[in-house]
Known about the structure:
The chain is an alpha/beta fold. The protein has helices spanning 40-59, 62-78, 80-91, 95-116, 151-164, 179-191, 205-213, 226-237, 261-273, 293-307, 326-341, 378-381, 397-404, 420-429; strands at residues 3-4, 6-8, 11-13, 20-25, 30-36, 124-127, 130-138, 141-145, 168-172, 198-200, 217-223, 242-246, 252-255, 285-289, 345-348, 368-371, 388-394, 412-416, 434-437, 456-457, 470-477. The strands form five sheets. Strands 15-16-17-14-13-18-19 form a seven-stranded mixed β-sheet, sandwiched between helices. Strand 8 (141-145), helix 5 (151-164) and strand 9 (168-172) form a beta-alpha-beta unit. The longest helix is centred in the N-terminal third of the chain and has 22 residues, at 95-116. The protein is globular, with a radius of gyration of 24 Å. The protein starts with a strand and ends in a 9-residue tail after the last strand. The model has no long low-confidence stretch (mean pLDDT 98). Nicotinamide-adenine-dinucleotide is lined by residues 145-149, 172, 174-175, 204-205, 208-209, 212, 223-225, 228, 231-232, 246-249, 280, 383, 385, 411, 451, 456.
Amino acid sequence: MQRYKNFVNGTYLDNHTKEYFAVVNPATGKQIYEVEIADKTVLNAARESAAAGFKVWSAMDAVTRSRILMAAVSLLRKKNHELAQIEVMDTGKPFQEAVAVDVVTGADVIEFFAWAAPGISGSQQDLGQDFYYTRREPLGICAGIGAWNYPLQIACWKAGPALACGNSMIFKPSEETPLGALKLAEIFTQAGVPDGVFNVVQGAAAVGQWLTACPGIEKISFTGEVGTGKKVMTSAASTLKDVTMELGGKSALIIFEDADLDNAVSAAMLGNFYTQGEVCTNCTRVFVHTSIQEQFLKTLLDRIRANIKMGDPMDPDTNFGALISSEHREKVLSYIQTAKAEGATQLCGHTMPDLPNQNQEGFFLPPTVFTHCTDEMTLVKEEVFGPVMAVLDFDREAEVIQRANATHFGLAAGVFTTDIQRAHRVIHQLEAGICWINAYGNSPAQMPVGGYKQSGIGRENGRETIRHYTQVKSIYMGMGPLDSPF
Length: 486
Ligand code: NAD
């Protein structure tokens, strides 16, 4: 079985402990390769190479850095098919998604920041004869820690702005999906990114903890669960690192009685079943106006039956894949059991379709919809991170806003209505960082994304992010004799 190593200083590096972990294809339940765990030797080497890489990279002019990143963007797009296959084998998501979204949106973000980097500048202000100016400087070594649902995209979304701003990065992918980040490291090196500027270290929580506590690492950009985010922030506080947190959600989709019903159903399905429900911004609380609920549920059920094709994710016709692991499927199933026990009605999701032979041991779970849900139910309060939609009803605008906001999460929200004033009025009152009106899930490179409340700190994508990967140096220039009482 193939065993991958850590990527340090532009090449693959052996660990000393010989420890490794195995990676399983979620669609078959079979081990597909092994990965060496980053031990102390590897981690220290990564830090040293990132420090050396930072010196070289930050001294380059931004246009040169930008050209190198654009070369990486071209390579990512050229290798889209091959990289998408890796993402499918690691995550269990459908190839038709991975080939259209994962690599492409990763490349888009690196491209956006490659274009933006030469425009990063400070300012100057006169103070009589004296003056001061500011420089927007990189932070130094940044660490990225990723989740397993969009492994390569997450690596690109962190590396793009970090590198464009002149930083170096040590990236730790999720131990469930470690290969995409190694491929990105190879691509950066091939594109001309100097050794040490992008390193990949492999392992689980212990490796993440090492990064969060490590002196000399200036920033942690983390994507994962709220609970892990709190641990990361606590640990990062020991050396007062800067942190950006992209965390979980329990987002609301509000469908008013005048909404375009077909589009609203599309949004509810996209926001619950895309990537078999493993998307942070999922609208897992679907509030449907009482007067259209029957029609909504009928259309939803018809479209689930007619259009969802669960099966081998490598089959280009499949649009619904396998959950990441057996443990995760058990967790999602336990939420389904609890929802039933608490009185919700399961509308669909009871039956598994026939699966191809090689997928019999895969971690599949059919799209599931619950109606008669109430705000107090566990399913409605906690992040499930699986294909389980909770449908709730409402009668009044003020009521639904208050209920949508009654959560410690604040990642995303959506509103469907044809009344444009109501659309904006409602969305302005929702406590969420990523909002859609008559749309759901789109995340272009230009648009900042991130959470309110416990769903996050800081933003990824958009010009906003440059502030998170740079710091301002103020330089005062005295033009005359120094005024001093001494
Ligand atoms: P997770 O929190 O379990 O793990 C995330 C990463 O943190 C992994 O690489 C893991 O190895 C590492 N880690 C675990 N313990 C750590 C510790 N103590 N210190 C440092 N690192 C540690 O999350 P997951 O299960 O991989 O991903 C699913 C979660 O990610 C969901 O909650 C989802 O909503 C969230 N997510 C959020 C976004 C976003 O942009 N807001 C995007 C994708 C996923």
